Amino acid sequence: MCGRFAQTADMRELVEQFKVAAPEKALPFNWNIAPTNPIYIVRQQSEIEPSKELAVVSWGLIAPWAQELQEAKNSQSRAINARSESIHEKPTFRSAFRATRCLIPATGYYEWATALGKYSPKKPFYISARDGKQLAIAGIWSSWRAPNGELVESSSLITQEAHGELETIHSRMPVFMPVDRWADWLNPKTHNVEQLQSLMWVEHPELNVIARPVSSAVNSVANNGKELIEETPLGAPETLF
Fold first, then answer.
1. Which residues form the domain of 217?
2. Sign of CA dihedral 112, 114, 115, 118
3. What would you report as the CA-atom Rg of the chain, rounded to the nearest whole angstrom?
4. In a domain? residue 130
5. What's the CATH number where 127 sits?
6. Domains contained in the chain, number
7. Which SS3 state, helix, strand or coil, does residue 68 take?
8. Could you read off the pLDDT of 33-88 as tens digits, one per residue?
């Protein structure tokens, strides 16, 4: 799974890479984004208007059946990630998957080594694009109306089985969406499940990213700064791709 990520791009970088208009208010840089935090998403404005917009939503999709605000918040922590293999079937995600998809720009994301890999369990790694650009992670978003009338928008990122060397860290990784598929992925008129699943399949997605070990300081949401993504040495028996 992906439980933390970073967004530290200059607004001009986001506007240029994703060809979107800047939001009225930019989010502060965040090296340790946690569930329920505000995040950027890129989405198509409507079925009629094909242009893209950069919106701010809450990380963790609110369950459609939530009745109260606390219930909605609790549901978010359980829905920060949606599995690509079953997203079209799960009640929390299936409607958004068919109608309201997005891209989630990330400067990088964190993953913690599992006991099944070759690294010390719970060792954190920071994973970012080899070309230095923003990762375009496939996601879904939805709107939920609170009892007080407030409209709350939320989002989940989509994960898949890890490939290549990333699998030696963790069994899951985000779905990275190639730029030539953005238009079809964001188009609300794209409803066919088989087509959508084919858009999420990319050969050797691990080749587009690089991982480096980082400090366990990222484990605490209280820590937030560029030092979190600085490489730290592994133990003598360990190696890193």
1. 4-229
2. negative
3. 17
4. yes
5. 3.90.1680.10
6. 1
7. coil
8. 999 999 999 999 766 667 899 999 999 999 999 988 889 888 998 999 999 999 99
